[in-house]
Design brief:
The complex is a heterodimer of chains A (1174) and B (151). Chain A has 1174 residues and is α/β, with parallel strands linked by helices. Helices cover 33% and strands 21% of the residues of chain A. Chain A contains 38 helices and 53 strands. Chain A has a five-stranded parallel β-sheet, with helices on one face. Chain A has a five-stranded parallel β-sheet with strand order 14-13-12-15-27. In chain A, a hairpin with a 2-residue loop joins strand 44 and strand 45. About 4% of the residues of chain A have low confidence. Chain B has one domain: Rossmann fold (3-Layer(aba) Sandwich). A four-stranded parallel β-sheet of chain B has the order 2-1-3-4, sandwiched between helices. In chain B, helix 1 links the parallel strand 1 and strand 2. The relative contact order of chain B is 0.19. The chains are: A alpha/beta (1174), B alpha/beta (151). Chains A and B meet through helix 2, helix 27, helix 28, helix 33 and helix 36 of A and helix 1, strand 2, helix 2 and helix 3 of B.
Chain lengths: 1174, 151
């Protein structure tokens, strides 16, 4: 796309039918046009209650107009674009705009819809006052045919769950994939952000759920359970992708600790190409995952599966090495290690510091969990008391409970609401008959004979003092002491890191808590290149925080190794979260899926996993509870299925400037998809800004006439400015066109009678229904067909190049292209699309012109694949028939002839009144030679004054117009582009040559008319006679539609009597006519239509049937008393009516002959197929 | 063989007719793939010979799909195709084929749903005709028709 910043041409802001007509008219007169619209695409949905008189008319006019406008080389359409401000003045306007991202390449998307069927996010939008539900990636106008047809993706800010996740997992993404049961894709999506899905799915503290907007309806989506479902059910296993090849990055990195923080850092660095080394002091890897979390919460198989996957990446993990003892910091530095990540966790259990702690039977929770996890036979007492209320305390309590036959009691120093452990864990503990004593602190541990027998405790109450973790500090109440029996006491009042053991000089450690102090953004410690993260920095915390620290440290280390600044662009601030309006999103409350658990008896005396995990149905239903806050979830399924590579999610808002000399503004729009274009700060009275005529009581022709008049006026202004500046006459370019000789192409240059077939897949929307293998097999049996090839997309430049290369390589001289384009003609039908136009434009450029190939297009998309999706076999059979018919037609197609006739740059205007006079003046000002045949009257003795035109003859002559008096008889002879206008004044006969003729019907019908009955058989008379015919579309509407679809042919423009006689309306009408004539003359040459007919004079019997059916056929005299039918083939529309009605078969239509039609029928119908095989 | 393969040949004019058929692709409708469409510039291009050829090549039904009266882009008088249509219907009668196997459908442009409805009704009608024909293969009617025409 080119951003036309130089002020040139016209900018049109907003769209309507009239705006597009203005754009097309201007472009056809050589003016550059930029159309700026807020809508994602332009189109029209047939309204049930259309205020316009003629609902069918507008669509048949509108769509060809749209397609022409969008495909015209001088028109640039900016969709989804808002105007922010307009500066400057006439000739120097600068329009600042912001273009919304579509996330899809407009020039590649064919609108096949494969992406839409994979999208699992359904959104409800308000469209034209109605609620519609549609996928996040969708047709731009939701069911109405749109041009351009490229799809759009709706996105909102970031989903709150994504923001909540410390690891930046695309939560909404993987949840939406589960709606379609895509566990493998979901796991891949998760693994792009983080490893260890199986572990997170069990023990993450789910900050995502805390942010879930679904909580406003009933309860948050059970995201952790879904995360676990993904990890457990991805049949393909864990596949970690590297971002850069291994070894692509140099530098030794040491990671101390193989807990979640260390492993994640190692994983990320490995993905980026480094080869970090992990030093683990234990014999087993995983840190707290292996030693601290009991197996009934994190089963060993799951842990080992995850560890295995990490090791399979090739990460170097060395167990049994303790930093500070077995290796030292200095030693590693000497060995070339440049960066360090300390992830030693918090292993040292805090002491109670009360008397009795050294008694036998008092253990710390860490050692207990370690031995129980590693299945070492260990002593568990009868009356177990756990002191503490964190996760470790509850874990120890539940673990001990499974092993003992007596009671397990937990002493919490605070109230239930402020307990540190996770709610789910506490609940499960209570289910398992663990009792919790709240507001209790131990004062002394009592014992006898060196063994513990009980604990003396005190009650507490909460104070107003808020601690670091946000909870109230409890204080003991004196005088409330009591004793609890216990033979086994587990101390679980927190852990601290043993950082000093690392023996790193200069490392700053907090003296109270023992944690390593770091920069919160970069995690760098007081020593450069030494980073730290996880529990050794934060104190005991959740797995997910530790893993997030690992990712953060990896980024820091990567930057450090690359010599980049550690802090730039990094922030701790979360991005903007998507808000969702619960009222408009119709949501039905649906209970959150409960996590199934094994029953109590099974839990005891075993360390089997307590929770079972969601079933497939439960997971699917639960994922459907997601509200899709960010709309598109970026699950990237659309990117995966689009064969054309048209989807790109990192599209962004584009701000740029559009320059223009004149601005046309839409007051409002009759495209129902778009808000009124009242943006910006311009007034209608600004010089150089014109208002596009609004729709006036639904009278489309009136609106369009005014629009064309405006376009003409604008063109005159711009061209005047241009010629002022450059002082070059416009028409020198035109005349060179005329000098090109007639060019008739002989037989194609390459190959001899080799017919090829190109099958377009259209993404995969065609070949997913039609079986190309079968098609190929059947078509190769057809004689003459030597090659069948496939392309992904025929309507792009690269597609056309591919086709062209194939054709040249295979030496094909005739090709059938089976795609979406239906015909090889220059016309634009009602149903034509922008993709079909691009198909023709590129193939003309790459195939037809350079290689002279004869091409036949057949449509197997809208005609076959897209409407027979349920019956692929019959669809394939039909496709074979359609393509065979095309093969038969291309076999007998005549070589292309280009028979150009020049159009003279002269106009003859016959009429009286302001309409004709205005047209004459405008055309003269554009440099055309104008002959104005008009009535001259006298007024008050003033000779040569023409009252109706309000100008004197001299004035008109001064402007370069040749004025001629009203003749006695008038006849039009010759052929389009080169008419001979014959005027008779008594005995004098004048001839004028004309490229275009404007005739005012009203004047000609007044008696006496120069068109006398005898000459009504002439061309002009026949055309005029046709107007009254009731079977035709009312005059100007027919012209409008014909001009937009097949183009003006005859060059005879009729001015119909208009009701409104005001001078303003008359001169508007004159401008509009001048615009149409100007466009016609601008072409400078015209060729007959490819479907034009040929009348064989020898076979003609002179019956005149064809002349009855068509006004352009005339009966000419032979000289011997007989007549014959004659047609100037430039005039022929190519309808073929005369071919059917000629009883002698004297008329043929080369491109649509009876022979071709019969061949087509034979190929399409089963008995015909059978006959052809004989 | 659940449903019989009823082959319909549709002559569609390039303008209003073709736009109806093209419009079906954007709606969520489908019609049987035994419906084949031949595009012509204007329905007036069709003459009796072409329609009969279609029947000769095995079409069970022929539909002429074009514009409503007064809507022809080329301004061709609709009488011509109506005359051809009625001519062929009487020829079919003479040949002993059911007249209703040829229909003329005139629709506004972009009438996707209407076209699908028309073609499905047409197929149903032909199924009935085929069933009834098998039963009444030797009836007195053909003789009667010839007597009428010879007057």
């Amino acid at each position: 796309m080119s951003y036309n910043t130089v002020p040139k041409g016209v900018a049109i802001i907003g769209t309507s039918v009239a705006a597009l007509q203005a754009a097309l008219t201007l472009a056809q007169m050589g003016i550059e046009v930029k159309v700026i619209t807020d809508a994602p695409a332009l189109g029209w949905k047939r309204p049930a209650d259309n205020i316009m008189d003629n609902p069918h008319l507008e669509l048949r006019f509108l769509y060809p107009l749209l397609v022409q406008a969008v495909s015209h080389p001088l028109i640039t359409l900016y969709t989804g674009t808002e105007v922010e401000s307009i500066e400057g003045e006439r000739d120097t306007f600068k329009i600042r705009v912001a273009q919304r991202p579509r996330y899809i390449h407009e020039d590649l998307c064919t609108g096949c819809g494969r992406c839409q069927s994979e999208c699992s996010v359904n959104i409800t939008s308000l469209l034209r006052g109605q609620k519609t539900t549609h996928p996040a990636i969708h047709m731009p106008l939701l069911g109405a045919k749109a041009i351009p047809s490229a799809f759009v993706i709706d996105k909102n800010d970031v989903a709150p769950c994504n923001v909540g996740c410390p690891l930046n997992i695309n939560v909404q993404g993987f949840v939406s994939l589960l709606v379609k049961g895509k566990a493998n894709e979901a796991l891949n999506l998760i693994n792009e952000a983080t490893p260890l899905a199986g572990i997170l799915g069990r023990v993450c503290r789910h900050p995502c759920e805390d942010k879930c907007n679904r909580a406003e309806v009933d309860s948050p989506v059970s995201i952790r359970a879904l995360h676990r479902y993904v990890a457990d059910n991805a049949t393909q296993g864990i596949k970690y992708n590297l971002k850069a090849p291994t070894g692509s990055r140099e530098g030794k990195i040491a990671i101390v600790g193989s807990g979640p923080a260390g492993l994640t850092a190692a994983w990320e660095l490995k993905r980026r190409g480094y080869s970090p080394a992990v030093f683990e002091s234990h014999g087993v890897i995983g840190g707290m995952l292996a030693t601290g979390i009991p197996r009934f919460r994190l089963p060993r198989e799951v842990r080992e599966r995850e560890m295995e996957a990490i090791k399979n990446l090739g990460i170097d993990i060395r167990t049994g090495i303790t930093m500070g003892r077995d290796v030292t910091f200095t030693y590693l530095k000497e060995r070339g290690y440049r960066a360090f990540f300390l992830a030693i966790g918090a292993q040292r259990n805090n002491k109670l510091n009360i008397p009795g702690e050294e008694l036998e039977g008092v253990v710390d929770c860490m050692s207990l969990l370690l031995t129980l996890n590693l299945k070492v036979d260990t002593f568990v007492g009868l009356h177990v008391v756990v002191i503490g209320d964190g996760n470790s305390a509850i874990d120890s309590a539940r673990a001990a409970n499974r092993k003992n036959e007596g009671t397990v009691k937990v002493l919490s120093w605070t109230i239930p609401e402020e307990i540190t452990a996770a709610e789910e864990e506490v609940e499960e503990a209570l289910q398992e008959r663990v009792s919790i004593e709240y507001c209790t602190v131990p004062v002394e541990i009592l014992g006898s004979g060196g063994k513990v027998t009980g604990i003396r405790c005190q009650r507490t109450r909460l104070t107003d003092d808020i601690m670091a973790n946000g909870q109230h500090r409890p204080e003991p109440i004196p005088g409330t002491e009591f004793v609890i029996d216990a033979d086994h006491v587990i101390v679980a009042v927190g852990q601290s890191p043993n950082a000093s053991q690392l023996d790193i000089e200069g490392l700053t450690i907090d003296s109270n808590t023992g944690v390593i102090q770091v920069n919160p953004i970069t995690l760098e410690t007081s020593i450069p290149a030494v980073f730290a993260g996880g529990d050794c920095v934060t104190g005991p915390n959740n797995v997910v925080e530790a893993m997030a620290a690992g990712l953060r440290a990896a980024e820091s280390i990567d930057r450090y190794m690359q010599g980049r600044d550690l802090e730039t662009g990094r922030t701790l601030e979360p991005p903007e979260t998507a808000e969702i309006d619960i009222e408009t999103t119709e949501v039905f409350p649906y209970k959150r899926a409960p996590m199934p658990v094994i029953h109590l008896r099974r839990r005891m005396n075993s360390f089997e996993e307590t929770t079972i995990g969601l079933s497939a149905e439960a997971a699917q239903r639960e994922s459907q509870r997601c509200l899709n806050c960010a709309l598109c979830s970026q699950c990237l399924e659309c990117t995966r299925v689009c064969e054309l590579g048209a989807v790109f999610h990192d599209d962004e808002i584009r701000h740029f400037e559009v320059g223009a000399q004149i601005i046309l503004r839409c007051p409002s729009t009759d495209f129902k998809t778009q808000a009124p274009a009242d943006s910006g700060s311009q007034e209608t009275t600004t010089d150089g800004v014109y208002l596009i005529p609004p729709s006036n009581n639904g009278d489309l022709s009136d609106q369009l006439m005014k629009t064309m008049a405006l376009a003409m006026k604008t063109t005159v202004e711009l061209k005047q400015k241009e010629s002022e500046e450059t002082k070059v006459q416009d028409f020198s370019e035109l005349h060179t066109n005329l000098e090109r000789p007639n060019h008739i192409l002989e037989e194609p240059r390459i190959g001899t009678k080799h017919i090829g077939v190109i099958l377009c897949r259209c993404g995969s929307s065609i070949n997913s229904v039609i079986d190309f293998k079968t098609v190929t097999k059947k078509l190769l049996r057809t004689p003459g067909v030597t090659a069948i090839r496939e392309v992904a997309q025929a309507c792009t430049e690269s597609g056309a190049e591919q086709i062209s290369n194939q054709v040249a390589e295979l030496q094909l001289d005739r090709v059938v292209i089976a795609a979406c384009r239906c015909c090889n003609s220059e016309q634009v039908c009602y149903s034509c699309t922008d993709r079909r136009m691009m198909c023709q434009q590129y193939l003309d450029q790459y195939l037809v012109l350079p290689l002279n190939t004869i091409v036949e297009f057949v449509n197997i998309r809208e005609q076959c694949a897209w409407v027979h999706r349920d019956t692929p076999k019959s669809a394939t059979r039909k496709a074979v028939q359609i393509i065979s018919a095309g093969v038969e037609r291309v076999r007998v197609a005549p070589p292309t002839t280009i028979d150009k006739k020049s159009i003279l740059p002269t106009a003859v205007i016959i009429g009286e009144g302001l309409v004709s006079a205005t047209a004459a003046r405008v055309l003269a000002s554009r440099g055309y030679q104008v002959d104005f045949v008009t009535k001259q009257r006298t007024k008050q003795g003033q000779r040569g004054y023409n009252e109706a035109t309000l100008f004197t003859i001299e004035q008109l002559q001064d402007e370069g117009i040749t004025v001629r008096p009203w003749p006695d008889t008038l006849e039009l002879q010759g052929s389009p582009g080169n008419y001979d206008v014959v005027l008779e004044y008594g005995s004098q006969v004048d001839h004028m040559s004309a490229g275009a003729v404007i005739v005012d019907i009203g004047e000609l019908s007044k008696r006496p008319s120069p068109l006398d009955p005898s000459s009504s058989s002439g061309l002009l008379g026949r055309i005029i006679a046709r107007i009254g015919n009731s079977s035709c579309l009312p005059g100007e509407s027919a012209d409008m539609i014909r001009e937009t679809t097949i183009g003006e042919r005859s060059g005879i423009f009729l001015v119909l009597p208009d009701g409104d006689k005001s001078p303003e309306n008359q001169s508007t009408h004159g401008l509009a006519i001048a615009a149409r004539v100007s466009i016609y003359l601008e072409h400078a040459s015209i060729s007959p239509r490819a479907t034009a007919v040929i009348i064989d004079k020898k076979l003609c019997r002179g019956c005149g049937d064809c002349a009855d059916i068509c006004p352009y056929i005339e009966m000419k005299e032979n000289g011997n008393g007989t007549v014959y039918a004659h047609l100037n083939n430039v005039l022929c529309f190519g309808c073929g009516a005369c071919v059917a009605c000629c009883p002698a078969g004297a008329i043929t239509q080369p491109l649509e002959s009876d022979k071709q039609l019969v061949h087509t029928l034979q190929s399409m119908l089963h008995r015909g197929e059978a006959l052809s095989r004989v | 063989m659940a449903t019989p393969y009823i082959e319909i040949l549709v002559f569609a004019c390039n303008w209003d007719g073709w736009s109806c058929i093209d419009a079906t692709a954007n709606l969520e409708v489908s019609y049987p793939a035994s419906v084949k469409v031949v595009r012509v510039s204007c329905l007036s291009r069709i003459h009796a010979g072409l329609i009969l050829k279609a029947f000769e090549f095995g079409a069970d039904g022929v539909m002429l799909l074009g514009c409503e009266p007064g809507r022809c882009l080329f301004n061709v008088n609709g009488e011509y195709i109506i005359n051809e249509y009625e001519k062929v219907r009487s020829i079919l009668k003479i040949l002993g084929m059911q007249q209703d196997r040829l229909v003329l459908v005139q629709l506004p442009a972009f009438s996707g749903y209407e076209f699908v409805m028309q073609v499905k009704n047409f197929i149903e009608k032909i199924e009935q005709l085929s069933a009834s024909k098998r039963v009444k293969i030797t009836g007195p009617e053909p003789v009667q028709d010839i007597a009428v025409l010879s007057q």
